[in-house]
């Protein structure tokens, strides 16, 4: 049910690959709440063409940018401000990829060149976006930036390998830039730590189905779906959360503060019987 929460606001939404993407749902919700925005993704992802559907649906121009390239990001931020007619009020970083995960490397056998790519794509890209935005003075006062994270930043999870370190760095960048941009422009920067979600990036992790089920059984509210994550991001882009900054916000149905759930205890008892 739209409430015009983002009426008059403009921004950039990265990472919408297909209908399953969390960013796709954020774009649909932002559009419904009255925002105007530019969509962006890596040129390679563009070739799949699905983003054109979203662009039409939301009346949102697309500006391709490899988020590891400062040059591409400079064009993205100047292009977005031109197309939207002024400075930005919000930005979503919804970008993650690990060549090590894609190639099924375990934690003890990581390829270090790929490790660096994981960090560059999934964490440094956030720093680069914020650095370009700052240099271009691209944000309006009281703007809001959100990046998507995962609880592996705080806890060890089998098979999440080098993305674990990437997410820890992403959350740290949010704190450092939150401090900087808060002082400079009253811009807030947060990360949202989302439940396992069945998307292209999620499903690429080996053993994903098992830890999806595990998290679902452990969380009193169950895993948070992508649509609910989008709702939360919209609240963070809105003026209702103006003093929330430098936080890693758990959006996980209660997973992160549960010790053990009755469902898991019952399963263990059954297995031991
Ligand atoms: N799916 C989950 O279980 C889950 C849980 C918590 C957090 N997240 C995070 O949510 C974010 C979005 O992932 P998703 O689950 O919607 O999957 P997704 O695969 O739909 O989105 C990942 C996006 O990253 C983009 N990308 C990859 N390399 C890029 C580059 N060099 N430049 C620009 N864009 C690039 C991809 O094209 C894709 O659109 C990621 O940061 C992911 O780690 C996902």
TrEMBL record:
It catalyses: a 2,3-saturated acyl-[ACP] + NAD(+) = a (2E)-enoyl-[ACP] + NADH + H(+). InterPro entries: Enoyl-ACP_Rdtase_NADH, NAD(P)-bd_dom_sf, SDR_fam. NAD(+) binds at residues 15, 21-22, 95, 167. Keywords: Fatty acid biosynthesis, Fatty acid metabolism, Lipid biosynthesis, Lipid metabolism, NAD, Oxidoreductase. Its EC number is 1.3.1.9. Pfam families: adh_short_C2. Signal peptide: none annotated. The active site is at 150 (proton acceptor), 160 (proton acceptor). Pathway: Lipid metabolism; fatty acid biosynthesis. Belongs to the short-chain dehydrogenases/reductases (SDR) family. FabI subfamily. This is Enoyl-[acyl-carrier-protein] reductase [NADH].
């Amino acid at each position: 049910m739209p409430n015009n929460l983002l009426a008059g606001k403009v921004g950039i939404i990265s990472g919408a690959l297909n209908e399953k993407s969390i960013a796709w749902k954020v774009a649909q919700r932002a559009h419904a709440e009255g925002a105007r925005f530019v969509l962006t993704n890596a040129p390679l992802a563009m070739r799949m063409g699905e983003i054109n559907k979203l662009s039409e649906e939301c009346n949102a121009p697309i500006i391709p940018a490899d988020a590891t390239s400062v040059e591409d990001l400079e064009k993205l931020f100047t292009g977005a401000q031109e197309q939207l007619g002024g400075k930005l009020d919000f930005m979503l970083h919804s970008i993650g990829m690990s060549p090590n995960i894609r190639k099924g490397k375990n934690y003890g056998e990581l390829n270090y060149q790929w490790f660096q790519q994981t960090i560059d794509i999934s964490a440094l890209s956030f720093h680069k976006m914020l650095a370009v935005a700052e240099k271009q003075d691209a944000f309006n006062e009281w703007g809001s930036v959100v990046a998507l994270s995962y609880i592996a930043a705080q806890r060890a999870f089998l098979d999440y390998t080098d993305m674990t370190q990437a997410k820890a760095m992403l959350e740290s960048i949010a704190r450092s830039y939150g401090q900087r941009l808060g002082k400079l422009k009253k811009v807030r920067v947060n990360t949202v730590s989302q439940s396992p979600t069945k998307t292209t990036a999620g499903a690429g992790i080996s053993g994903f189905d098992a830890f999806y089920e595990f998290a679902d059984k452990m969380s009193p509210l169950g895993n948070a779906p992508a649509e609910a994550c989008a709702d939360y991001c919209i609240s963070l882009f809105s003026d209702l959360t103006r003093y929330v900054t430098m936080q890693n916000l758990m959006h996980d149905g209660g997973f992160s503060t549960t010790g053990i759930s009755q469902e898991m205890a019952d399963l263990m008892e059954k297995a031991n019987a």
